[in-house]
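pasting for the record
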Amino acid sequence: MTNAAKMLGIQIQNGFSPEARVFANLLRHRQDAYEAKVIHQYDSSNPQWAEMFSAVSTTPQFRLDAGWRPGPIRGKRSLPARIASRLRYRMTFPTMLRVARAYDPDVIYSCQQVWDITAATYMAKKLAKPQIVHLHYIIGPWLGKLALARLKTCDHIVTVSDFIRQEVLDYGIAPDKVTTVRNAMSVFPLPTPAQRSKVRAEWHLPEDSLFVGMAARFDAGKGVEDTIAAFCLAAGKHPHAYLLLIGDGQLRPALEAQAQQSGFGERIVFTGRRSDVPDLLAGLDIFCHPSRKDPAPLAVLEACAAGLPVIGYAEGGICEFLIDGETGLLAPTDDVAKLAAKLDCLLTYPEMRKCMGLASRARIEAEFQPKDEGAKFAALINEVCTAHASSRF
């Protein structure tokens, strides 16, 4: 690998976030097409997420703990705590720069998160190296001023879906500076009857119950409230149907109140945060994910990989995962009645559920494999490095 391009990645721990999962899988599937090292800011008192990233990525890391910690699920940290975190973080930059100089990378990579892109931009400017930004979100003020500015000036942007790529083009970025590397997923083994029974037994529910599920952060835009509303519209016709809501977030108290006031609260289960989502998916019959402008939801990819039919709204990256009427059902955005009708249809016809679920799994296996996206990302790394080297002469 002496002639391979060298990539330095910046990864700030925030659990095993979607950004971390995608990056780790791309590294895992680089197949020696480029060298890589990761500077990883992590929580030394709780290293499990860093260990998980290491196990998946199989990539050398330099770890340091600046005291940065993700905020609580509900509420925000105080202003003094945020200022102190930022100052401690900035104090690690000289150490990171020494590591970067010793490694002598050809390109600097990070996602768009403010902590990651701040460090990556600093490294790229100090070392005069090209910078790649991996964009997982839609474009807006929530990205922060630095990220919005850097999207205009970095060397290349990787987007997680063509939906996000179009957002970047609409933001004024030249098409040759933007490449879609789709989120990908290995298919799961088909569930066994024992797995299905185990999930029902955890909540003491009958073997013949039908489980509709959703896994997401309970935040605005994820559509959890619409899932509850659609389920309640369909539930009267399906007395054996239950709704399993996997996750947590700021909206949980309001969502629990909505469930209780619906009249179907006893059939709506809030699991809280879980680390065994694939096991829970094995016990579901239908997956519901009516999010809005979702860039490329990993939860939907997981559901498809588990062989589940998926319903959602016809907008955002989910439209690139699902073929309406073949691998899932899509309703017009914000039309809860139509969403409920799609759910009622899948609850009514078991053969439709089975056929769509198997078709969904087969499509993931054929078109959304990590090795293919890893190879595409590797080719991009080398193209960016070659273009930068050529521009210097």
